Task: inverse folding
């Protein structure tokens, strides 16, 4: 097997691609040893480099693989304009949606003029998230401005969600993810699993999937796990086996590993409450409608555990059969992983601090209700420890632009959705849908299936899991309740679906954009495998969940 040898004088965290941002990059020139290659390593200006240290030559490391690969395919997802103002056609289409509702659609007598006006602004905002006339945060701010300027909402009500605890918990989760990447802890954990299980392609896939499930509860960003930890490892292993992106050799190994990791990540995120940002938001929205889940961390894990673990373990094998790699055995992978661990050296002080802090944070998330510590306070304590001990600095936090962007547009969407609930729009919509379902004489299990499938496949219109949740979760939960579906079952099933639909397309989530951008999977295969795996997950979660949730007493 051909190997690359590099001398790296400066180690830096890998940039995390997102479906809405295209990062500007500068390059660091690596000086070659004899008989080696001279490569340019892309460095994101958003991530501060780790302290300088001299490293020995590396064997096809993750960073080298990131640098050596050809330029990734552009993601043709609905992309907001970076400059030059709004895109005219998406702008007009987005505005037309709200104007049509406000001026052309008849207002039901049970809906107030204020509520109808807010609904029209909200629908224009959601249309803009799908069509992308401006970046997400900018378009959401325009929607917020419209609610205040038209006196639909007072200033305090419009900005009320900026004090929402769950939104700040999501923001802090971005900083935790940066800590995993900056210290190299996530990379070390994943490499250990490759060393233990990587003698075959299937074992390699299981090692990566299980390692993600292990770090998921303490790294609450699926996109960060994909871009900062697992994709660099996948690319390194693929290139060492002669599997190159944007090349027929991609099917040797890289295509399978990329798809397997992407499809398994949805189950890892669904397994733990703190494994993904949208999970926390779903429970907050459910609480606003009156569905409160006692001891949420443990209840979440207990309900999700059996179907999520079975689906997680089934995914690599099933993809191995329907999308098989050309290389079946990878006998050199454990040796490469062992060499990489050797080059990384012993566990550093910052990695130990990161481990201890995450154990503390997860413990407080699990037992916080018992001792009176909320989830956001537990996260604040963890972040404070990382800042005090120098694992992160304030510049790291300021440079985490995705966190601050999420704070802005997420708070706006959640605020609008909350006001729609308060003004009676959500209950009106749910009652209308319930009447339609009743006209077909559907039992609540049948209504449950129809609503869950509708919620899932509507995601083809969204380029963000959190945007989908902010736009539709409350309405669909209210529809479930109006149709007679048990409350806790409705709330949790919708939330689990909010993780599973993240792998439907190349634009359906941040992690999908990351993996597709690697250039190992063609677009037709992305759609085919996304739909096929979604059907497999639906069968597993449906069959296993039916018996497991009955056993737990959810219905």
Result:
């Amino acid at each position: 097997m051909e190997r690359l040898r590099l001398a790296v004088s400066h180690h830096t965290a890998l940039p995390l691609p997102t479906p809405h941002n295209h990062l500007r990059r500068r390059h660091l020139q690596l000086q070659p040893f004899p008989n080696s290659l001279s490569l340019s390593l892309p460095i994101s200006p958003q991530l501060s480099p780790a302290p300088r240290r001299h490293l020995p030559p590396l064997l096809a490391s993750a960073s080298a693989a990131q640098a050596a690969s050809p330029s990734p395919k552009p993601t043709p997802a609905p992309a907001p304009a970076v400059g030059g103002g709004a895109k005219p056609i998406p702008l007009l289409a987005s505005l037309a949606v709200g104007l049509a509702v406000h001026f052309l659609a008849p207002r039901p007598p049970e809906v107030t003029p204020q509520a109808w006006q807010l609904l029209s602004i909200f629908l224009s905002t959601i249309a803009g998230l799908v069509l992308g006339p401006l970046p997400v945060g900018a378009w959401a701010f325009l929607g917020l401005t419209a609610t205040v300027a038209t006196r639909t909402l007072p200033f305090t009500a419009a900005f009320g969600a900026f004090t929402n605890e769950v939104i700040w918990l999501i923001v802090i989760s971005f900083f935790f993810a940066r800590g995993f990447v900056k210290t190299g802890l996530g990379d070390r954990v994943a490499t250990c699993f490759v060393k233990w299980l990587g003698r075959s392609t299937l074992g390699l896939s299981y090692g990566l999937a299980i390692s993600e499930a292990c770090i998921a509860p303490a790294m609450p960003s699926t996109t960060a796990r994909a871009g900062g930890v697992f994709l660099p490892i996948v690319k390194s292993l693929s290139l060492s086996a002669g599997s190159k992106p944007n090349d027929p050799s991609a099917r040797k190994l890289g295509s399978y590993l990329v798809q397997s990791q992407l499809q398994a990540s949805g189950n890892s995120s669904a397994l733990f409450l703190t494994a993904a940002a949208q999970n926390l938001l779903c429970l907050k929205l459910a609480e606003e409608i009156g569905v409160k889940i006692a001891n949420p961390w443990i209840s979440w894990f207990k309900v999700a555990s059996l179907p999520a673990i079975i689906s997680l373990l089934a995914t690599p094998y099933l993809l191995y059969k329907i999308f098989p790699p050309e290389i079946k055995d990878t006998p050199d992978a454990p040796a490469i992983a062992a060499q990489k661990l050797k080059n990384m050296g012993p566990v550093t002080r910052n990695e130990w601090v990161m481990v201890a802090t995450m154990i503390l944070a997860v413990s407080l998330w699990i037992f916080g209700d018992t001792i009176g510590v909320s989830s956001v306070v537990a996260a604040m304590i963890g972040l404070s420890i990382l800042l005090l001990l120098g694992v992160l600095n304030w510049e790291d936090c300021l440079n985490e632009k995705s966190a601050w962007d999420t704070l802005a547009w997420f708070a706006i969407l959640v605020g609008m959705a909350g006001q729609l609930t308060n003004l009676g729009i959500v209950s009106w919509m749910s009652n209308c849908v319930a009447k339609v379902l009743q006209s077909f004489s559907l039992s609540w299990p049948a209504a449950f299936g129809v609503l869950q499938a509708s919620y899932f496949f509507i995601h083809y219109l969204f380029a963000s899991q959190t945007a989908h949740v902010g736009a539709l979760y409350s309405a669909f939960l209210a529809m479930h309740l109006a149709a007679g579906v048990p409350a806790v079952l409705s709330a949790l099933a919708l939330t689990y679906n909010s993780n599973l639909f993240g792998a439907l397309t190349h634009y359906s989530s941040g992690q999908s954009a990351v993996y597709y951008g690697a250039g190992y999977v063609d677009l037709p295969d992305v759609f085919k495998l996304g739909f096929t795996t979604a059907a497999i997950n639906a069968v597993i979660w449906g069959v296993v969940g039916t018996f497991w949730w009955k056993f737990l007493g959810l219905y």
